[in-house]
Write a structure and sequence with these properties.
Blueprint lengths: L18 H10 L2 H13 L13 E5 L2 E4 L4 E4 L13 H13 L10 H13 L4 E7 L2 H16 L3 E5 L8 H6 L3 H4 L9 E4 L18 H13 L2 E7 L11 H14 L2 E5 L23 E4 L11 E6 L19 H16 L2 H22 L3 E7 L2 E6 L2 H13 L2 E2 L1 E3 L3 E4 L7 H16 L2
Parallel strand pairs: 3-13, 5-6, 5-7, 7-8, 8-9
Antiparallel strand pairs: 1-2, 2-3, 4-10, 9-10, 11-12, 12-15, 14-15
The structure holds pyridoxal-5'-phosphate.
């Protein structure tokens, strides 16, 4: 059997079984935590990237997690559900109210929470992105998008990106591009072609670190060769290591899809609703996709919620089941999503993500100028990355920061990804960046 630790470095997630990890555990975990972790390992199936767990939590509030030993940890990972922070009072109150009055809405009934959310998403989304379908998770919503693309175009092929992640279900890993999810699992969906992503530091087309959209041009080349591709599926901004393509990339993709009759499906599951400083990340690019998939923070960090939002003209599958999920119109989930959007609007979180993100990026640039171990910094809104020359250092920095009360994720082995809640106070963001800087400098 493959040892998962051989693969985790270059895949989404952190290192699970390294000596550094063991040292950190020995130094930081007390008896109560160890007992709970042992029970966790006993009762749950073990899987790469999520077992064994780091630590055990007892509460979460705002930007903070609290572990069972009472240590507070700033959450700059949050599995991308935490735009409004953990347990935002408005979100919690909205969910409680839904639970008190309409805890479940059986299929074939509708409810005001679900209708209001669909209407709100249509009002927020530009162009004629007016039709929605909800699902309990991102991978399911991606699956709905793939089915609808097949039905709408009468074609089944897709083009997606190596290194991308679209969820862990079989259809989602077929279009995903990370080996840790795809290897040794048997046949995947047919017709799922992959191309190199926009990744200027590792560009296969020789852009020299500053994307000139040749990678998007290659997508058009494949579209033209294949002639019968249903959809191009892309993470608007790849969140695992923060890849932010230039405007020309999406202009080229949009035009290529139009020319070749393919749909453009944007996966914004981890970056929707403010993370990039816009409600929808694609708004930063001046294009409108045929479908956008939302998730994670849509449920306000308290409820599993995802949504497929598509152009009006794609409402063409009335005689098929696209989703058919039990919790499709969950009143509590929809109440959480509505309250989350209200908080983003009422608290000016888009503007906040842009302002704090710009300040933070400035600081990262100055760190880069002073610290040779940093080879690149990048960001969009409050999604920031520090790329280090060395994966070993990235892992060391991770455990040093955890010890100082800051949690984040390492992507592609050497990229520190910082995604604070958008409600973070300026001084807390400064403190966190100080912790990261000291951890890298002391490396
Ligand atoms: C870009 C992207 N797409 C899809 C998913 C899958 O979402 P879920 O875990 O809700 O199935 C994720 C989750 O990390 C993601 O980051």
């Amino acid at each position: 059997m493959n040892d998962p630790s051989n693969h985790d470095r270059s895949a989404e997630g952190d290192v699970n079984r390294s000596p550094r990890r063991k040292r950190w555990e020995a130094e930081h975990l007390g008896t109560a935590t160890r007992a709970l972790l042992a029970e966790d390992a006993k009762h749950f199936l073990h899987q790469s990237l999520s077992t064994p767990c780091w630590n055990a939590l007892r509460s979460a509030s705002g930007i903070w997690l609290e572990d069972v030993e009472g240590r507070r940890i700033m959450d700059f990972h949050g599995n991308s559900v935490h735009q409004v922070g953990h347990g935002h009072p408005r979100v919690v109150a909205a969910v409680k109210q839904a639970l008190d009055t309409l805890p479940f809405s059986p299929r074939r009934f509708t409810n005001a929470y679900a209708v209001s959310l669909a209407a709100k998403l249509a009002a927020l989304a530009p162009g004629d992105l007016n039709k929605a379908l909800f699902a309990p998770g991102g991978a399911e919503a991606i699956g709905m998008a793939l089915k609808l693309a097949r039905i709408a175009t009468g074609r089944h092929k897709t083009i997606s990106m190596w290194d991308s992640f679209h969820g862990a279900s079989l259809d989602a890993i077929s279009i995903g591009g990370e080996a840790v999810f795809r290897r040794d699992i048997g046949p995947l969906l047919p017709g799922t072609e992959h191309v190199p992503p926009c990744d200027p530091r590792a560009c296969r087309f020789g852009c020299g670190g500053s994307c000139d959209a040749r990678c998007a041009g290659y997508v058009e080349y494949v579209l033209a060769k294949e002639e019968d591709v249903a959809a191009v599926v892309v993470e608007t901004v790849r969140s695992t290591d923060v890849q932010v393509p230039p405007r020309a990339y999406y202009e080229t993709l949009r035009a290529a899809c139009d020319r070749h009759g393919a749909l453009l499906i944007l996966d914004e599951i981890p970056v929707c609703l403010g993370r990039t400083g816009a409600m929808f990340a694609f708004e930063r690019y001046g294009i409108v996709p045929d479908m956008v998939v939302l998730g994670k923070g849509l449920g306000g960090g308290v409820f599993p919620m995802a949504a497929l939002v598509v152009r009006e003209g794609l409402d063409v599958a009335a005689d098929r089941a696209l989703g058919h999920y039990t919790h499709e119109k969950s009143p509590a989930g929809c109440a959480a999503a509505l309250a989350t959007i209200e908080v983003i609007e009422a608290e000016g979180l888009l503007e906040r993500a842009n302002r704090l993100g710009a300040q933070a990026l400035e600081r990262l640039r100055s760190m880069r100028a002073r610290i040779p171990a940093i080879v690149d910094v990048r960001g969009i809104g409050l999604l920031l990355a520090i790329e280090l020359a060395d994966a070993g250092l990235a892992e060391e920095v991770l455990y040093r920061c955890l010890a100082k009360g800051l949690s984040f994720k390492v992507g592609q082995g050497n990229v520190i990804v910082l995604a604070p809640p958008l409600v973070i106070e300026e001084r807390d963001l400064e403190t966190a960046l100080g912790i990261v800087e000291a951890a890298i400098r002391d490396g």
